[in-house]
Specification:
It is elongated and about 100 Å long. A hairpin with a 5-residue loop joins strand 6 and strand 7. About 0% of the residues have low confidence. Helix 1 runs antiparallel to helix 7. With about 260 residues, the chain is of the alpha+beta class. Helices cover about 30% and strands about 25% of the residues. It has seven helices and ten strands.
Length: about 260
């Protein structure tokens, strides 16, 4: 009888320790009732400052399109056709922090925001080539928001989104979501800065993560989703899978018992 009790306790122990709790799967939970009572959250998002190897898309317009055609590397109809077109026709920030544009030559942009680069280019055009009556209109954007994601997600690799701001949840959704075996409580973000690499873990199950400076990504961020310990145990992600594992173990134990008894 004691052997049967042992098997029962073993089965219950495996079921309770191997199943993944709902608390480990649900995003943005209100874990502290004294905070986040309203749906309005102040999110910290600093403007991105350009780094080497960033690719910029610079578009210059005026009343007379012919006046600004010499400053462009693409025709109007070619812009935005594909990611590869933006890469080859855009302006890459070199190791010295410069971009090289037709006529304007080298322009230092390292450490600048996109808005600061726009103002800088527009000022140079008005000072050296055009009058105010030309109505120069300059837009400067990144040629795609690029990030890399790895680990327990549906689709790993380097991704590109064509939008100005991307938060961590959007990036994960674009990568097929975190698998059941992924640790949502410790998602690692590695960020390149002028002072070196920064590495930080964030808890996506806590709604307070929206206050984190890492909630909104920056271009070229690297995201790593670690596996849960349940994956290394191999006992199953759900109760049914764990129960199947227990049955298999009990069958093996029973077979061995009778073989030894003989």
């Amino acid at each position: 009888m004691s052997k049967y009790l042992f098997y029962i306790f073993l089965s219950a122990g495996v079921l309770f320790t191997s199943c993944i709790s709902t608390r480990d799967l649900v995003y943005l939970q209100k874990k502290d009732s004294t905070e986040m009572e309203t749906s309005i959250v102040a999110v910290e998002s600093k403007p991105y400052r350009l780094q080497t190897n960033d690719v910029l898309s610079v578009n210059i317009k005026a009343i007379d399109p012919k006046l600004v055609s010499i400053f462009s590397t693409t025709n109007e109809g070619e812009a935005g056709k594909s990611e590869s077109a933006l890469y080859f026709n855009g302006f890459t920030v070199d190791d010295h922090g410069n971009i090289r544009m037709p006529i304007l030559g080298e322009i230092n942009v390292i450490g600048y925001t996109l808005e600061e680069v726009r103002v800088k280019i527009e000022k140079q055009l008005l000072e050296d080539y055009f009058k105010k009556e030309a109505n120069i209109f300059v837009t400067v954007k990144l040629a795609g928001f690029k990030y890399t994601i790895n680990g327990e997600v549906g689709s790993t690799g380097t991704k590109t989104l064509f939008q100005d701001h991307v938060n961590i949840l959007e990036a994960i959704a674009n990568s097929g979501d975190i698998a059941l075996t992924g640790n949502r409580k410790a998602v690692t973000i590695i960020r390149q800065t002028p002072n070196g690499s920064e590495m930080h873990d964030i808890d996506l199950t806590d709604i307070n993560v929206m206050k984190s400076p890492y909630f909104y990504l920056q271009p070229n961020d690297y995201i790593y989703v670690k596996p849960l310990k349940e994956k290394t145990w191999g006992t199953g992600k759900t109760g049914i899978e764990s129960f199947g594992t227990v049955i298999s173990l009990l069958s093996l134990a029973t077979t061995l018992f009778f073989l030894v008894k003989k």
